[in-house]
Amino acid sequence: MANVSIRNLGIELGANRVISALDLDVRAGEFVVLLGPSGCGKSTLLHSIAGLNDAAAGSIEIGGRDMTYADPKDRGIALVFQSYALYPTMNVEKNLSFGLRIAGTPKDEIARRVARAADMLQLGPLLQRKPGQLSGGQRQRVAIGRAIVRQADVFLFDEPLSNLDAKLRTELRRELKLLHHQLGATMIYVTHDQVEAMTLADRMAVMQGGVIQQFDTPDAIYRRPENLFVATFLGSPGMNLFRGRLSRRDGRVVFGDGHLALDVSAYPFRQPPPDGLACVLGVRPEDVAVRADGPCRGHVTLVEAMGAHRVLWLDHHGTQVAAIVQDDHPAVAGSTPFALRPDHLSLFDEASTQRL
């Protein structure tokens, strides 16, 4: 396993600068996820690490060696694409061993590596089948196994589960995490699926417009988003937002939007906010408490049944508020009281969109 260090990276595709002055440090043995919407630059960044895109500026180090302009074959990486890219005329065993045979690896070593990968990915009974005889999940296992047999320093995954149905995605997601524990390898994984990112990552980088907006553990990013983009991109339903101002009253700091007044004096401000600052208050749906003594009221416009819980959509003076309640919560209709849990709030400067 090896670390990956990226400094001041710039990537141009044609006349477009896709990534500018990007820094990223991936520790050896870490599982890092690049998360963001389509077109944010996450796949471009992954392909640049792999050597498929030329760097216009900056440097890429893998295992302490400068690989900025090295050929892909010399980087010690293994890449798994969204498409399986298997050889249709070869059986699973030959697909797994193809790269090793081309590299002149001894036959006994090939057999050992193929057997290990097949055991890890439960491919043993499928070794003599051809890709056309496999399901989508089995084909993706073969594609991952082909990367494993290379014993690479760094494994790169470019949305490998996006072509699979929901059940298969869940199964392979779990297998990938277990595989990471078994191999102890450095893995960098690209996805636009936040569930994949939250469950797989040791740390994740949320990207927008070719810029890493926040790089931290999934829990830290979910609970303490650095800006409004990160706050609203993560979560389903997304974070509830209230636009208002901060005011100082008798030594307290109060958020108000004309319909609610909330004491936020205990909020961990990075610096004391000025009186009258326009800001946005964010609260996750699970931190909206629907209860009889709630100081706020909202009209229930929709109830979404989600199995073990329900999502209540409340109209609070024109602001849509999502609240998660357990399935055994009493049925509600019409106007209902609710409260915001003060210890799980986020505040953002309305002008800069950055966390206060």
Automatic annotation (TrEMBL):
GO biological process assignments: carbohydrate transport
Keyword terms of this UniProt record: ATP-binding, Cell membrane, Membrane, Nucleotide-binding, Transport
Record-linked InterPro entries: AAA+_ATPase, ABC_transporter-like_ATP-bd, ABC_transporter-like_CS, ABC_transpr_MalK-like, ABC_transpr_MalK/UgpC-like, Mo/tungstate-bd_C_term_dom, NA-bd_OB-fold, OB_MalK-like
Record keyword Cell membrane present: yes
PROSITE patterns xref list: ABC_TRANSPORTER_1 (PS00211), ABC_TRANSPORTER_2 (PS50893)
Stretches assigned to the ABC transporter domain: 4-234
Keyword Transport on entry: yes
GO-annotated cellular components: ATP-binding cassette (ABC) transporter complex, substrate-binding subunit-containing
GO MF, any single term: ATP hydrolysis activity
Domain of life: Bacteria
PANTHER family: ABC TRANSPORTER ATP-BINDING PROTEIN (PTHR43875:SF14), MALTODEXTRIN IMPORT ATP-BINDING PROTEIN MSMX (PTHR43875)
Record protein name field: ABC transporter ATP-binding protein
